[in-house]
């Protein structure tokens, strides 16, 4: 099977989040990311655009009654950049998590353009 997308974590945020999860959760995260890498059409229950943002998405997964989100965005359509992740405790995605993801996304593109 051929990869459709490449996944890259930006800085340390995703790894920090991942390292705090137990093995079952980590395995679930890896399965979802594999789906993002290899599937042409990603089911919306696993990858969803964040309303009111320009190009920010969240990968979504659950285990039992617990729910997690990892923010990401696309660069040149085929590269998925992972940002911060969190365990969701309420119906609405916390605004501070979205703001952090948007700040990291901006930082990524600024650095890419050569800005500091």
Key phrases:
35% helix; 5 strands; alpha+beta; 116 residues; 29% strand; globular
Provide a quick synopsis of the model:
The chain has about 120 residues and is of the alpha+beta class.
Order of helices and strands: EHHEEEEH
Form type: globular
Give the termini distance in whole angstroms. Answer: 39 Å
**Number of contiguous helices:** 3
Into which percentage range does the β-strand content fall? 25-35%
What does this structure look like?
- The model has no long low-confidence stretch (mean pLDDT 92).
- With 116 residues, this protein is α+β, with helices and mostly antiparallel strands.
- 35% of the residues lie in helices and 29% in strands.
- A hairpin with a 7-residue loop joins strand 2 and strand 3.
- The radius of gyration is 14 Å and the shape is globular.
- It has three helices and five strands; from the N terminus they run E-H-H-E-E-E-E-H.
- Strands 1-5-4-3-2 form a five-stranded mixed sheet.
- 20% of the residues are buried.
Describe the secondary-structure layout.
Layout: E1 6-9, H1 13-19, H2 23-38, E2 47-49, E3 57-63, E4 66-75, E5 79-88, H3 95-112
Parallel strand pairs: 1-5
Antiparallel strand pairs: 2-3, 3-4, 4-5
């Amino acid at each position: 099977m051929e990869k459709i997308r490449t996944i890259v974590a930006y800085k340390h945020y995703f790894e920090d989040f991942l390292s705090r999860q137990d093995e079952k959760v980590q395995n679930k995260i890896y399965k979802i990311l594999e789906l993002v890498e290899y599937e042409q059409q990603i089911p919306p229950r696993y990858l969803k655009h964040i309303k009111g943002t320009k190009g920010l998405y969240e990968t979504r997964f659950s285990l039992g009654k617990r729910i997690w989100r990892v923010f990401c965005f696309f660069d040149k359509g085929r590269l998925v950049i992972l940002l911060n992740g969190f365990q969701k405790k309420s119906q609405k995605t916390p605004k501070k998590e979205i703001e952090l993801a948007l700040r990291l996304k901006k930082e990524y593109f600024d650095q890419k353009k050569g800005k500091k």
